[in-house]
Specification:
Blueprint (H helix, E strand, L loop, with lengths): L4 E7 L5 H6 L9 E6 L15 E4 L4 H12 L3 H4 L2 E3 L5 E2 L2 H13 L4 E6 L16 E6 L8 E3 H7 L12 H8 L7 E11 L8 H4 L4 H12 L8 E6 L3 H26 L2 H12 L6
Helix pairs in contact: 6-8
């Protein structure tokens, strides 16, 4: 049966997490997986056999995704409902990926992501997991590991080739969605680990331009906010700490309800009737 979710990720000769983590429980996954190889030569040909789809495109992540979805397999935009674009240094297991797809569908997100583990390398602290939260509605989802629904992806695809580094295109995504307050979500109940330092990969040695300059340029071009890493709201887990105010409020409300019910059901006339019924041996309701 054709799956409705797909993971599309860059892959090189040193990539290993797709097999060790993403496909750890391969038979239980609710997604297909497509790897886009960026090195000139493939050292291990077995990598081709381990996934559903494999393309040797030798380019940067989002440029390869653009080529894949506009020139090679444009029909995928109709075949799949959700697209997850992972960097190849992200550790997240099969069950967590399944859960992220399911939650994104359940909450009808435009763009979503898992939260980063406490020991992850990280650019923006907002993406670190908050253990008290189930999810958080935010103003921007970064390029490292976003999950798109198909409609949003169709709108965002042209931005994928705006620059080499991909810095700043996530700022544009928020702008193109008109800065919604309930469509971009960090799911704190799903955790991933960014295993390598930010800015330390091969990409930054190959692009030949300043990522910061590219970021400023694309933001200016679209008239977008440079950084919109803000939280608009959240769903929290009930705990001893945050449930006390809720419990007090609920107890007061329940107490008033009971008093009101007694006043309504057992007013003076009702009490007299019930008393007379008791004296006559009849129960009066």
């Amino acid at each position: 049966m054709h799956k409705r979710n797909i993971v599309i990720a860059p892959c090189g000769n040193k990539s290993y997490l797709f097999e060790e983590a993403w496909l750890k429980n391969k038979e239980e996954r609710n997604f297909d997986i497509c790897l886009l190889f960026y090195h000139e030569h493939i050292n291990n040909q077995d990598v081709v056999k381990s996934v559903d789809h494999f393309y040797h495109l030798k380019d940067f992540k989002y440029k390869m995704i653009f080529t894949l979805l506009t020139k090679i397999n444009p029909e995928w935009l109709q075949h799949y409902d959700y697209f997850y674009f992972l960097d190849d240094d992200i550790y997240i297991d099969t069950e967590s990926i399944n859960q992220l797809f399911n939650l994104s569908k359940a909450f009808d997100t435009s763009i979503s992501c898992a939260a980063l583990s406490a020991d992850s390398f990280c650019s923006w602290p907002i993406f670190k997991q908050d253990p008290t939260a189930f999810l958080r509605y935010v103003g921007q989802i970064e390029v490292m590991a976003p999950l798109f629904n198909s409609q949003t992806l169709k709108l965002m695809l042209p931005t994928f080739v705006e620059n080499k580094s991909s810095w700043g295109i996530d700022s544009v995504w928020s702008k193109l969605l008109n800065y919604p307050k309930n469509k971009m979500v960090i799911f704190d109940t799903v955790v991933m680990k960014h295993t390598l330092p930010v800015g330390g990969g091969e990409l930054y040695l190959k692009i030949g331009v300043s990522p910061h300059d590219e970021w400023a340029s694309i933001v200016d071009r679209y008239g977008a906010k440079m950084e919109n890493f803000v939280e608009y709201g959240r769903l929290k887990y009930l705990s001893t700490e945050n449930s006390i105010p809720y419990s007090i409020k609920n107890s007061i409300s329940r107490g008033f309800s009971q008093i009101t019910k007694k006043m309504r059901d057992y007013d003076l006339l009702s009490r007299i009737k019930n008393r007379l019924g008791f004296l006559s041996g009849k129960k009066i309701i």
